[in-house]
Amino acid sequence: MRFVRYLRDGITRYGMIEGLEIVELRGGLFESKISFNGVRQPLAGTQLLPPIVPVTFYSGTSGGNYFTHRRSHESALQPATPAEQHISYRANSALAGHEASVVIPPDSSGKVQFEGELVVVIGRTCRNIEPENAMAYVFGYTIGNDISERVWQKSDPTFWRSKNADTFKPMGPWIDTSADIDKMTTCVRLNGREVSRFRTGEMVFDVPTTISRISRYITLVPGDVIWMGTDDPTLDMYPGDIVEIEITGLGVLRNSIVAGV
Amino acid sequence: MRFVRYLRDGITRYGMIEGLEIVELRGGLFESKISFNGVRQPLAGTQLLPPIVPVTFYSGTSGGNYFTHRRSHESALQPATPAEQHISYRANSALAGHEASVVIPPDSSGKVQFEGELVVVIGRTCRNIEPENAMAYVFGYTIGNDISERVWQKSDPTFWRSKNADTFKPMGPWIDTSADIDKMTTCVRLNGREVSRFRTGEMVFDVPTTISRISRYITLVPGDVIWMGTDDPTLDMYPGDIVEIEITGLGVLRNSIVAGV
């Protein structure tokens, strides 16, 4: 099943995709039983919002979660092979939907790059979960583009603006409740040309390990998202560019790059 | 005016304090006009929740926002006198209310400390605000206790567990819509004994500067909170301790320390 989030009459709605239509939900995504209110609308032409706004927005591994990416950003603080898994937080304020513009701040160096990522959406409250039980708490998956300003990132210990300026976290287009991570490929296209391709599942810390790690100290709740990191290459983007992230079975997250004023 | 958040019949409510009572609001805190639904209940005996759950939870200055505290935690990455202001994010999942227990995780070193902080609550959406206009976007103020596990903190570049384990961010008891920051004192008591006292307003980066700084890159929205940092000393706490943060005019945030199992 695929679930979207959008506005109708100025109110945020959740819907399920059925063929070419959105079938609107009566309540939220995490009711004990999903029900519908009878409203349908075409998927085409509906402006999709980020499919969820989490209570807490987690990023899987500080310093990267794929070996090639870790080696290319290696430093004393971020060894290529991490001894233990450190989690990060991202800002909900930075979320943007499918087809939204990514705005490069006017005082940016201009070195703004994509990072195509698998996003895990938590479906049930959990605390102190072992890896072998972790997948039972996953609601589904979506796609994230972890937009990063590389010059700022070097002097931004918390990544507060280098990775969290407005619109720097596109997420979508929808949440798909099923996925076979070992069979997935993440593919990034810039203006239609493939520029990055990697096996989605070849992570340093996989999804069950990450959920288990977080849950040892923190209660995960329905709607929380965990961005699982990217692999190299990550390339510069410029105003006018169109960036697409495709992950097998999860669709395509497409955003345009524009210059802020 | 003072506003609280609490549960009644299992539903989250907002209320205004009137004498010894809570007068319940019809909607949320940020309606264009506040209205009441006629329900009243005594303040005493009402279990208060954190007065707001923000969209994004900001911490004012990475490395500390008071000079004495910065000097005592000085490092190459965190100079005592910061050249520029770096913002951090904290996890909504870590929020706890007034009178809630702070739970020390079972594998903690035990070196868990308080940090008494002024918390700014944003009331109106703002972007690209100059410091001289920033205070118009403040809804009010509350108190935060930025609980920190000092041994973990040394090897936790994102502070993901050292400052964000469950219950490590008590906030409350209420939001007060008025404050004269220059005349405020922050006072911390451990088991009734005063252990820290500092002038709340003697910050490295003050409230208008911080709001302006964030808003240059990020849209602040109603309910967002900015924790403004603490000054030294910050001392160890142990299971059985009661920690109270009092800030002039904002009341007392009181929490007990318990050992996790």
TrEMBL record, chains A, B:
Gene3D superfamilies: Fumarylacetoacetase-like, C-terminal domain. It comes from the Bacteria. Residues 62-258 form the Fumarylacetoacetase-like C-terminal domain. Residues 1-51 form the Rv2993c-like N-terminal domain. The keyword Metal-binding applies. Keywords: Metal-binding. Pfam families: FAA_hydrolase (PF01557), Rv2993c-like_N (PF10370). Belongs to the FAH family. This is 2-keto-4-pentenoate hydratase. It comes from Candidimonas nitroreducens.
